[in-house]
What we know:
The protein is mainly alpha-helical.
Amino acid sequence: MNELRPNEQRSKTAITLIWLILAIEGLSIAISIFQLIIYTMMDQGDFVSGKLFLAGNVTEGAIGLLYLSMYIVSAITFIRWFRRAYYNLGTLTHNLGYEDRWAAIAWFVPIMNLFVPYRIMNELYTKTDKYLKQQADRPYPQLKTTYLPIWWTLWIIAGIAGNIIFRTSLQNETMNEMIDGQIISIIGSLIGVPLAIVTIIVIKDYAKTEKILHEIVQEGVQDRENELEN
Length: 230
């Protein structure tokens, strides 16, 4: 039985950063609603001071930059956890559908990124649970794939929404387009909230079970050492 590489800290870091993303999503929704109100007032001919208009734009830009920065860091930490988890499972089962590097590469390959990461996550859940049923001599939290279709559906929808938001932002020339852009931005952020929550649940569920995998491997190593000593 091969020794597993540590992954607990990676899971904790990934979860922490997703919580931060969730907090920024809340700020993004708030500023988008504020901007929507400002643009609607302007469209209706109501007076809006230049300072208020500028403050809204600057705040929106700052939050957008913060979100982009944190999203990149969060994505990197998630993928590092994801690949390490898949690698560890591969050292135990040797019958996975992909090499562990695809747990990272697949996210960036067109077409493949629509289904391969989901297949790998599903393998993590189903094959880890199968392995534990065969190896564990203690109670363990069973991995249920209930959340996985929800997680992946939200991920796909969020990706589509993000693409629409980006394209819309390039066309914000008229007031109506700016109002539409804010509405789409709010919808995108609202999708991001359940996506973040479900992703946290998925990581937590697997991290609990992966901890037991490490315990089983360590016990196996200790048993072999005891046999050699005897």
